[in-house]
Amino acid sequence: AVSEPSPTVAPRRARVETSLRAGAQEQEEKYEACNGAQRGRLNREHLFPKLFDGCYFYFLGTFKYHSSNDLKELVKAGGGHILMRKPKSDNDVTQTINTVAYHAEPSSDQSFCTQYIIYDATSKYNPDKIRQGKVWEAPSNWLIDCVMSFQLLPVK
Questions:
Q1: How many beta carbons lie within 10 A of that of residue 48, not counting itself?
Q2: Which residue range forms the structural domain that includes residue 41?
Q3: Is 127 domain-assigned?
Q4: Both 39 and 96 in a single domain?
Q5: pLDDT tens readout for residues 5-64
Q6: With contact defined as beta carbons under 8 Å apart, do 129 and 81 qualify?
Q7: The pTM is what?
Q8: Widest distance between CA atoms in the chain
Q9: CA-based Rg of the chain, rounded to a whole angstrom?
Q10: Alpha carbon of 148 to those of 35, 98, 107: distances in Å?
Q11: Which residues, at least 6 apart from 116, have a Cβ–Cβ distance to it below 8 Å?
């Protein structure tokens, strides 16, 4: 049995096939799967910072739904950094960091959050506080949603 191409491969394949038939390269914009893909492409063309540029991520516990290695690779590909120790919100060094998250909503308090504790969305873990100064806790699906939309989304 032949399987269907993934949602990210299908638009690319259609663009290549159309380009081959026409004998000229088709515009990429017509085949973008979502707004996040367009934002990511424009971001790269304008040489803006990567999605997670200036952000640090700590992965808490075990991950079943999304592999922690896959999540870490997404973070690194997006310009983010992996922390080996859990960040502490009451740490003076943490609170004096003045880095601004470029891809967060500029008017939100999230633009000043650059450290995230990511936990498995399917786990029973329930953080006491989601926002603790410049350290926020978010489920793994939040990270995936950020990548898909190419923006730092609010943590709910």
A1: 13
A2: 9-45
A3: yes
A4: no
A5: 444 455 556 656 666 677 776 666 665 556 777 788 887 888 889 999 989 999 999 999
A6: no
A7: 0.73
A8: 61
A9: 18
A10: 8, 27, 22
A11: 55, 56, 57, 58, 135, 136, 137, 138, 143
Q: Are residues 125 and 63 in the same domain?
A: yes
Write the pLDDT tens digit of every residue in 111-123.
778 899 999 989 9
Distances (CA, A) of 18 to 7, 95, 100: 17, 52, 42
Enter the tokens of residue 30. Answer: 């017509």
Answer yes or no: is 138 within a domain: yes
> Does the residue 155 lie in any domain?
no
Q: Tell me, yes or no, whether 68 and 127 share the same domain.
A: yes
Q: Which two tokens stand for residue 11?
A: 């638009």
Mark whether 28 and 88 lie in a shared domain. Answer: no
Q: Say whether pLDDT at 85 is over 90.
A: yes
Can you tell me which residue has the tokens 């399987």?
3
Place of tokens 């973008």: 32
pLDDT at 2: 40
